[in-house]
Amino acid sequence: MRLQLRRPERSILASQTSIACFCLALDQSDAVVAALAEVLSTDEHERAARFAFPGDRRRFVVTRGCLRGILGRLCSLPASSVRFDYAPIGKPALAIETARKPVHFNVSHSRDLAVIAVAVDLPLGVDLEAVRPVPDRASISSRYFTAVEAASIATVAPHERDRAFFLCWTRKEAFAKALGDGLSIALDRYHVTCRPDEPARLLEVDGSTGEAAAWSVYDLRPAPGFVGAVAMRAGRRRLLWTDVDVEDLVFDGLN
Q1: What is the pLDDT of residues 207-250, one digit of tens each?
Q2: CATH superfamily assigned to domain 7-121+237-251
Q3: Which end of the chain is least crowded, N or C, by CB within 10 Å?
Q4: What gap in Å lies between CA 39 and CA 15, rounded to an integer?
């Protein structure tokens, strides 16, 4: 599968000063889903078949097929030739034989939207969430977030509290995914900003402001009603954003 990347995104492989984010609409036609399914590996087909609901199965196929298309374009390979290795906790990485130069990526999806984040030199994490009512928001915050974060969420305007909750959640999970641990690291071991009027920042890690200062966190606003974050242990970088036309990506050519 070929992906015609714009010049800024194409330059990511020659730059260690950028993070590229690709946004995908997952609600696609039967023809697009079928075409993307053709480039998946046997184990990916098996994984797709384990989804109980057809909608979840289709979203997986679209996300994974587009991930293969994007990584294949970056590595000058057909989408079907991309190979993955998996960390013990399940985080995928490009297999050595696929990555002709270091290419790190992370994926997140919520409802019918997905974001793929890519950088060339260091691991990164991305998280995406649809902002929605959380009836037990206060109890979840007090149980899993730091006391300062829970208090911060509780003090924003009532109509902004669900948004603040998901700003906190996405920033924390992006950091955890960049570490490679997903949510196996306790959420109260690190502290992020979460008020809607504050810039995204990691403030402390296990009580250390010095370790937190080594990280950069970026806000994502992929669509109305969604929030997201990217985290990387590096200085500030340019964030390059591409809204991917999935149908054009697919029918531009397979393999």
Answers
A1: 999 999 999 999 999 999 999 999 999 999 999 998 998 988 78
A2: 4'-phosphopantetheinyl transferase domain (3.90.470.20)
A3: C
A4: 28
Q: Do domains 7-121+237-251 and 128-232 have the same CATH topology?
A: yes
The model's pTM is 0.92
**26-73: pLDDT as tens digits:** 999 999 999 999 999 999 999 999 999 999 999 999 999 999 998 888
Separation in Å, CA 232 to CA 109, 176, 207, 244: 19, 10, 19, 23
Taking a C-beta distance cutoff of 8 angstroms, is the pair 83, 97 a contact?
yes
Q: Using only the alpha carbons of the chain, give its radius of gyration.
A: 18
DSSP annotation string for 106-145: EEEEETTEEEEEEESSS-EEEEEEE----TTHHHHHHHHS
Strands (E), the chain: 18-25, 84-86, 92-94, 104-110, 113-119, 124-130, 190-192, 202-205, 216-220, 226-232, 238-243
* CATH code linked to domain 128-232: 3.90.470.20
| 8 A C-beta contact, residue 235 and residue 52 | no
Every domain of the chain and the residues it spans: 7-121+237-251, 128-232
